[in-house]
């Protein structure tokens, strides 16, 4: 596809720049741009790269130097402007229409302009909202419902009764609505606890590749509006993930835990079961959250504690080997002082009178100080 | 489906309660139950919630107060009774029979009442036991064998020669019997070590979504009877996972390691290769197991050590920043004592006679003590 | 298949051994070998196991004792020789030819002798090099290209524009070329940053099961020649993984990070975004890499630091609880010394010259020192 440069200028809110008949065929970095591409630079020190770029037009900040080469479009925020234009060039997913090999149960309901890819399966009672797209090999189970304008990528599995809101995106390999992990030991075996609930995903949620969102034992596993989930993330049964949460790759939330609105959970974080993470909390990478996190808190470590505390402890830990040497040095110094002090006391005792009785103390090390000799017993 | 209340009473071992013609259509929590549902309460302080529930019947403990509203069924353990009844309402997986789009190789053998979903593939020489169910898009490779009453969910991949016992459940996206990760550096490249063994999974094992169980280099990767595995778990080649083990989500077992009967391995645990975890051992979340764990041990941390040791160290670590201040304070005190002691020694020396030779010591800090003045040199 | 023993001897570079007509049908360990199998032993103390093995021939080192039983083939490195022979017995993947249920877009190009499994989908503009094999249920997106002799296992998803080199292996469930994880907060919601780049994977790369390799925002996510990736690994957008890198299971590399040639990254490691790992660096299991790692460095821990430092700190940490006791003991000793010294000073003061007023100081611990003079200055 191509877009007229004049239309791009309009969208950026700047005056059209000659030649108005120029068309843009794509967007890319300065280095990778081809001759029909739009690119961007954020700082004046990128002038050489801009001059060397094959791009036909480059978004630059207002104070960027004049250059021969690409057409310069001056905007207040080149990056923001660039990605706004870039959205025009996002490939619309392939496979429009219902592929002849797709298997749509007669009891399923498809909205207007729904696309279903090759070998995708839509089971009985499933409902798909208008303009939603199911990629090749997708499985949509019985009674599962999708909102409008959803994108379910190739080889996603969505099990029975799951509910996904409008504009939901699920990337390839993810599984929604599988059984939660629940057993009771019956004396001889782990007996499976029936997993009878469902998954409810609200609108504008995006779920990465190869994620797992388990159905609730009873009730719902819930992911709320606008939350974005990276790849390989585990969402256990009966969890409740708030709105606009960010869950980075390979993190996992155990059963029945809650994550508040706007929380940010970094990569490879584990959150234990029945824990509550407050609104806006931030959890550092690889942390292990074992108890409730207050709203707005920033935590790190396993077990996760306030970030400042963990960093202070890590800094102290780095000094610990040297500290051990200092402790040993102090012990030698104390020993030396004790010996010298005992000698002084003895001399003072001889001079003064009467001689006080020897003092015997005990501790982790038993120290016996007594005239006329010094004795030390060690464990 | 519906179940007569009288049958539910019989199954619970209690006397039928009027009206005997009542039928139950499902199970749910007190809050979520609809008018045809059965629910449960475990404590008397849930009386208000029971009264407000739409459930038509509620399992309660024997001493629960009488209430208007739902029919109360008094049993010794409402939770256990509830989940026993809940099993009656578990959806039988859809897709009974062989879907016309399933691709069954003529050399494959299917037992009685086997179900195969849409676009599933059963390769040559594969054998499937009676009543087993393969979901849509499942791939069952050549010579792979499934026992009876297995449930292989949609989009599972089971490679050649894998053997799965009776009543095995594998959830969507998991891959059984892929190549193990083995290479030798040949001086210029990592050369692949052929992975010629297989996977053997015994009866009553359940494997979550998007797990990986690799085939052995030679011999077998083995998962023994009754073991339950959560989502996104990695089982490397030649491992041997004992009976009734619990492996929580995102944990991983490296090559040739063994896990004993009844061990419990929490989420995001890593177990190194060639390690042995004893029977009944418990490994805390995110631990990194680098050496053998004795039977019954409880370990935590990276590297994993006895839980009590790790907790003691973490508690000590939390006090380390304050400790650093105490050490500095002690150093000042020792310095002060040393100076004062030297002064006393000098006065005593002047008084007594003869003056002893100054003592010179060295350590991390060089301390020179000498009459008539005290000097200290620091690094 | 079978291989004549005489051919095996030729391949091992040793003289043929009678009976030359013997054929070998497989390879296995000493314990698991059947009567037509070849096995190997590396040490003389395995003589009893060799004698008891059902193998018909066993590779042994030159100094291995003579034994009745299996034919002994003496070679300098039995293990290397064994796996070289083992390669002869690797199953050639099934499904040769284009399965009738495969869906090949007329605009796709397949090279000579390409095999495509059941229900696999090859989209418009995709190109597959000669002799490459696509398993059942594979999805190859529009304009994606595969080199020659690739093996794409069942249920792999490769999205549009991805480029894979010759002899690339991708195991089941992996997803190549999905959107990277990029959003900007627009004041009310996380707005998706278009992911317009691609994935480029060079030749001889192997990628395990259920991995994710995300497309670049702009430009390329790149995995270079000869790199081997285990299962469940996350490769984020715009990363650049060097040649011959080893990435062990469940590790993850965040956006725009670079990994140098020959680096080894152990299991469950996390590498932050925009970080550079030097050539040949080694990163210990479960480490969290938050800043650049120099070439050849060996690091461990979260955050990752030089291995020796981390081990020293861990060793010191293990001694910390005992250290706390020593500190308390020292405090008692210092207190005792202080008291005794003050007493001596007082006696000396009485004897010597006019007694000055006692000075009282306070700190974390209150210390009372009395003496004619003495002043302490604190920081």
TrEMBL record, chains A, B, C:
<comment type="pathway">
    <text>Bacterial outer membrane biogenesis; LPS lipid A biosynthesis.</text>
</comment>
<comment type="function">
    <text>Catalyzes the N-acylation of UDP-3-O-acylglucosamine using 3-hydroxyacyl-ACP as the acyl donor. Is involved in the biosynthesis of lipid A, a phosphorylated glycolipid that anchors the lipopolysaccharide to the outer membrane of the cell.</text>
</comment>
<feature type="coiled-coil region">
    <location>
        <begin position="320"/>
        <end position="347"/>
    </location>
</feature>
<dbReference type="Pfam" id="PF04613">
    <property type="entry name" value="LpxD"/>
</dbReference>
<keyword id="KW-0012">Acyltransferase</keyword>
<keyword id="KW-0175">Coiled coil</keyword>
<feature type="active site" description="Proton acceptor">
    <location>
        <position position="237"/>
    </location>
</feature>
<dbReference type="GO" id="GO:0103118">
    <property type="term" value="F:UDP-3-O-[(3R)-3-hydroxyacyl]-glucosamine N-acyltransferase activity"/>
</dbReference>
<dbReference type="InterPro" id="IPR018357">
    <property type="entry name" value="Hexapep_transf_CS"/>
</dbReference>
<comment type="subunit">
    <text>Homotrimer.</text>
</comment>
<dbReference type="GO" id="GO:0016410">
    <property type="term" value="F:N-acyltransferase activity"/>
</dbReference>
<dbReference type="GO" id="GO:0009245">
    <property type="term" value="P:lipid A biosynthetic process"/>
</dbReference>
<keyword id="KW-0677">Repeat</keyword>
<feature type="domain" description="UDP-3-O-[3-hydroxymyristoyl] glucosamine N-acyltransferase non-repeat region">
    <location>
        <begin position="22"/>
        <end position="88"/>
    </location>
</feature>
<dbReference type="GO" id="GO:0016020">
    <property type="term" value="C:membrane"/>
</dbReference>
<dbReference type="Pfam" id="PF14602">
    <property type="entry name" value="Hexapep_2"/>
</dbReference>
<dbReference type="InterPro" id="IPR011004">
    <property type="entry name" value="Trimer_LpxA-like_sf"/>
</dbReference>
<keyword id="KW-0441">Lipid A biosynthesis</keyword>
<protein>
    <recommendedName>
        <fullName>UDP-3-O-acylglucosamine N-acyltransferase</fullName>
        <ecNumber>2.3.1.191</ecNumber>
    </recommendedName>
</protein>
<dbReference type="InterPro" id="IPR007691">
    <property type="entry name" value="LpxD"/>
</dbReference>
<keyword id="KW-0443">Lipid metabolism</keyword>
<dbReference type="InterPro" id="IPR001451">
    <property type="entry name" value="Hexapep"/>
</dbReference>
<keyword id="KW-0444">Lipid biosynthesis</keyword>
<keyword id="KW-0808">Transferase</keyword>
<comment type="similarity">
    <text>Belongs to the transferase hexapeptide repeat family. LpxD subfamily.</text>
</comment>
<dbReference type="InterPro" id="IPR020573">
    <property type="entry name" value="UDP_GlcNAc_AcTrfase_non-rep"/>
</dbReference>
